[in-house]
Design goal:
four-stranded parallel beta sheet; alpha/beta
């Protein structure tokens, strides 16, 4: 991977709406982005990220889950900065909204 002169940053919850914009702008600015998602292989959820300019060269998606203790430790330690936009998705099966 070519050195772009910019650092590596982490965006948690990278497939979310706001996080996707962070990823887009960071890639456009030449950063290497380490994005956390629940399932990096789910093209329906992460495909839009791979279509961003610079993604093939500077985007890495890794599995992390807020509900798993220590899930983000290695990812965050590898980065110079973190944009924390992930949120746990909790559902109540008794709720009529679900």
């Amino acid at each position: 991977m070519a050195n772009t002169g910019k650092g590596k940053v982490c965006v948690t919850g990278a497939s979310g709406f706001i996080a996707s914009w962070f990823v887009k702008r960071l890639l456009e600015s030449g950063y290497h982005v380490l994005g956390t998602v629940r399932d990096p292989g789910n093209h329906k959820k992460v495909g839009h990220l791979w279509n961003l300019e610079g993604a093939k060269e500077r985007l890495e998606l890794v599995r992390a889950d807020l509900l798993e203790d220590g899930s983000f430790d290695d990812v965050v330690m590898a980065c110079e900065g973190v944009f924390h936009t992930a949120t746990p998705i909790l559902t109540n099966s008794n709720s009529k909204a679900c």
